[in-house]
Design brief:
This protein is of the alpha/beta class. The chain has 20 helices and eight strands. The protein has a five-stranded parallel beta sheet with strand order 5-6-7-4-8, sandwiched between helices. Helix 11 runs parallel beside helix 13 and helix 12 crosses helix 13. The two termini are about 35 Å apart.
């Protein structure tokens, strides 16, 4: 099995082991640069990603690679960019130092957190659920800042929002415009660092001189007062000088209860386009495009098998295809429906049998509390935190609506459930203990263990 195939399969598994926000922010743009014996050298796009992966996800990544290769592996992260890929013989065992950065060029470029080269318009599969968002993105890419400014794209996890933002960025770069693509987390981190190091002028120069600003997962700035304040002024500076702004979110502006009203109103100035889950035909087309990009012929029968089982999340859809291809390679078997069903068995049957009651039982047992306590009114930390984890897991694993989850947990208001889910999402990123608790519960739920 080729090293790049191993890493592709590992990414498919890692997508299923963590939140999509974590995967998108830290692993989505990673590349396998080199494998030396049992050491995998992984390229990431910036120092933030390198530090975060080394300190937070290294053990998980090593464990996943070890399972795929059948041996203990070492993993080294290095800062990488598109220019590095021009040479076939890459020797990046140590990251470049800041002093080695080239002098600023007069040619407009994107921020070092570079656009994903795979996310272009010609690789975006259009279907009934994303037609409006795709058409609006194309219009913005062809005539930035002349219509739909800002463009606000929202939809569930893994439906193509990031793909569209990157595609807009590529098209605008081709027009000679200066493009800046960041996640809302990166915007927040940059702001924190600028405040800490007294370099806010540099921060503002970076964000307010872009011709096109693309911000992914803008919902994460809700509730962060300083970040919202700075983004509000950045928005005004760009919009007032005829620059294009595109943001994505997992919900429409009106549903961001902790977003400042003045910022919400600005998001509603332009066009709001939603993306709905793809239908069966679109899912099959996505899988066919993905297999073609991988250079792996897959029969329509197997593509339909995968597409009929995974219905709402494109990343999960692609992850399942990676699982199937990896199973065929690792076992040296031809790609048949039997092999595909075996590869998917860890993803599909348990997920289909999973219920909200089962999640509540697992959480109650894990934290040694009673289910009525989770559904009761107690606000003690010993009850409130497990209750929030239950909310989070029911939403993430079952896709239940906020009111439905609230009804399961003692008739709570949907805003309480939303806060609980967002709180756990935030803690998973920052608190290794909570992250481990959630991972353990997921394993118990899908392994059928208690």
């Amino acid at each position: 099995m080729k090293p790049n195939h191993i890493w592709s399969a590992a990414l498919g598994e890692l997508q299923l082991q963590m939140t999509q926000a974590t995967f998108d922010t830290w692993l989505r743009d990673s590349r396998l640069l080199k494998q030396e014996d049992s050491t995998f050298v992984i390229g990431v796009t910036n120092g933030y990603a390198k530090d975060w992966l080394e300190n937070r996800l290294l053990a998980t990544i090593k464990r996943t690679l070890a399972r795929l290769t059948g041996q203990t592996v070492a993993v080294k992260f290095v800062v990488w960019n598109e220019e590095s890929q021009q040479q076939e013989d890459i020797s990046l065992l140590t990251p470049p130092t800041p002093s080695s950065d080239p002098a600023p060029s007069s040619t407009p470029t994107s921020h070092p957190a570079s656009l994903n080269p795979r996310y272009t318009f010609d690789r975006f599969v259009v279907g009934p659920g994303n037609r409006l968002a795709h058409a609006a993105s194309m219009a913005v890419a062809e005539n930035p800042a002349s219509s739909y400014n800002p463009l606000f794209v929202y939809g569930g996890v893994g439906l193509g929002k990031t793909h569209l933002l990157n595609a807009i960025g590529h098209s605008c770069q081709a027009l000679g415009l200066r493009v800046l693509y960041v996640s809302s987390e990166e915007f927040t981190n940059d702001l924190i660092e600028a405040i800490r190091s007294h370099t806010t002028d540099t921060f503002r120069d970076k964000y307010r001189t872009a011709d096109v600003l693309l911000v992914d997962d803008i919902q994460f700035i809700a509730g962060k007062e300083s970040t919202q304040e700075e983004f509000f002024h950045t928005f005004n500076a760009l919009h007032g000088t005829g620059r294009q702004i595109v943001v994505s979110s997992d919900r429409p502006p009106k549903a961001m209860s902790t977003l400042e009203g003045r910022l919400r109103s600005r998001f509603e100035w332009g066009l709001i386009a939603d993306i709905q889950p793809p239908d069966l035909e679109t899912r099959i087309a996505i899988l066919r495009s993905k297999s073609a990009a991988l250079g792996e012929p897959v029969s329509d029968e197997i593509l339909e098998l995968i597409a009929s089982q995974i219905r709402t999340n494109i990343r999960e859809l692609e992850g399942a295809l990676n699982q199937v291809l990896a199973m065929s390679r690792l076992t040296h078997q031809p790609l048949t429906t039997e092999v595909a069903e075996t590869a998917l068995v860890n993803l599909l049957p348990q997920r289909s049998k999973l219920t909200a009651d089962r999640i509540l039982e697992a959480v109650a047992l894990h934290f040694d509390v009673e289910i009525p306590a989770l559904q009761g009114r107690s606000r003690s930390q010993a009850i409130a935190r497990p209750r929030q984890i239950a909310m989070y897991l029911i939403r993430e694993e079952m896709g239940e609506s906020l009111p439905q989850i609230g009804a399961m947990l003692g008739g709570r208001d949907h805003t309480t459930v939303l806060y609980g889910c967002e709180r756990i999402t935030d803690l998973i990123e920052k608190d290794s203990g909570i992250r481990q608790e959630v991972m353990t519960l997921r394993q118990q739920l899908y392994d059928g263990s208690r």
